Amino acid sequence: MATSEVLHPLPGSMPWHHGLHCDPCRRMSSIPLCFKVHPTPSGISGVQDSKGKRYPAYTNRCPKKQFIPPWRVVTKRLHCLSCECQRFEGSPGTSDDGSNGSFLPDETNKLNPSSAREKLAAAAAKKEKAMRVKADSIEDEAWELLRESIVYYCGHPVGTIAANDPSSTSILNYDQVFIRDFVPSGVAFLLKGEYDIVRNFILHTLQLQSWEKTMDCHSPGQGLMPASFKVRTIPLDGDDSATEEVLDPDFGEAAIGLWWIILLRAYGKCSGDLSVQERVDVQTGIKMILKLCLADGFDMFPTLLVTDGSCMIDRRMGIHGHPLEIQALFYSALLCAREMLAPEDGSADLIRALNSRLVALSFHIREYYWIDMRKLNEIYRYKTEEYSYDAVNKFNIYPDQIPPWLVEWMPDKGGYLIGNLQPAHMDFRFFALGNLWSIVSSLAASEQAHAILDLVEARWDDLVADMPFKICYPALENQEWRILTGGDPKNTPWSYHNGGSWPTLLWQLAVACIKLNRPEIAVKAVEIAERRISRDKWPEYYDTKGARFIGKQSRLFQTWSIAGYLLAKLLLAKPKRAKILISEEDLDLVNSFSSLLAKPRRKRSRKGHKQSYIV
Ligand code: GLC
Prior knowledge:
By secondary structure, the chain is mostly helical. The chain has 18 helices and 15 strands. The strands form seven sheets. A three-stranded antiparallel sheet has the order 5-6-7. A two-stranded antiparallel sheet has the order 1-2. The protein has a two-stranded antiparallel ribbon with strand order 3-4. Helix 11 runs parallel beside helix 15. It is globular and about 75 Å long. The two termini are 41 Å apart. The N terminus and C terminus are likely disordered. The site of alpha-D-glucopyranose has 8 residues, from helix 2. This is Alkaline/neutral invertase. Keywords: Carbohydrate metabolism, Glycosidase, Hydrolase. It is an enzyme of class 3 (hydrolase). Its EC number is 3.2.1.26.
């Protein structure tokens, strides 16, 4: 980049003039984020280390009006950053509910062991208690590990490292703070009343959103969040005795910031501190993400078009196009953003676009992604090459695409949302996160949501087996694996993203089950995980069809496995807390949805009638 510009001014900050001064100090207490993206000397994007690597330009505000290069955070000056981040005692949004309706085993029913039957019961209770003690210690261990994974920037917690595996010889990028990986950690901290780390994370990643990013000569649109970032300590120029800390974002595979919006809402709901979401820069950040997602493109569908590997599955797995996970997160983020956007004249158009997208998206997913026995039979009998508005087979799906495994696998009771839909292509694989989050966000209609859990119960041995939860089912094998993954040696059948089992998915399962008032399903899954997760050292994922082995290249002490388990426990213990993550069905949406269904099919688009999306 050859330009020098303030990428994203913070509200209330003075414009910075290169080479003149840095801003007067404001303590971390008033705004935890005392950093601002500053212009850099012309032609230089951020700071460069001795190997020529560039870092983003951040600065702290310092007490003296002396010249300090603006892209520096000097650890020597840390004393001026003492943190008085506000704590919010109690959680207005999720106040503890005394008896709390916990779904976990209750100890209060002590039995009197006078008869044989009572003795048996007492033995069972003892065993249960022993199990609880064990479980409690697993929980304690998980908390300890989670705290050890905290990453600090200038003395303040800003996130958690992806994995803390002392046995691993190759770190790869697991020493970074991944945006999506932090969500379960962040929510666990929120539920513990530790809000600072989440607030700092939200505000720092917001700053990274504005950082100029390029891939070769191309700069993607503003609004993209990095997928991860890292705190680096590098030597301070011209001073051998000092080092400085810089935040180094990784835009390698772009994230859209959907999780960021979801976490921001959870933060506000849990802490009661709405001042973060009300900040001008945060409101701008939300709008930037929305504009990016709602921008017109070539696409005809209301679903969001992404490349392969844009979600939890971040390598080639044949899910380019409109993968369910992205649609569920998109829907969820739109609802959360609508709740948080400050009403102002300037955002009326955006809110309108957002509302119409919500209707179109939910209609599209509920109608075209849904399959159960009835729908499958309908597809099986589809006629093809229908070219009219009345076409039943709108996407021209060839019935031959129904895979043989599905004919056996679809239970009589239950159903699910398919993984992806494109012209002439339905990806029938079951993707766990997309389905679970469709329940949580109400993207799936209520009966569909229940049917998804029915399917989970009916296919427990495939989806949970020895360790919850299968990331997708079934695995790609043979030629299909070779073609769709490009022969990826990490994604071999029933490993990693290709049918591996991921303990982190426990928390999304817990939220979905709590929302539908069927917590016993998640409780059962947590108990299965507890049998071995700690002994196995908290692996990132498990391999084989039945999840019997620790994954081939799985990291140990993977933070989101730890946090996913912990969060599931916290939520099941006090289910009302799940409210901070759940979006209930929107009645306005339901009404628009039913009027869409009631409308007779249009024969031909009327002139002057603006139809934004094909639903
Ligand atoms: C794997 C996961 C990805 C996660 C990353 C770091 O690549 O697929 O979702 O963020 O590991 O843990």
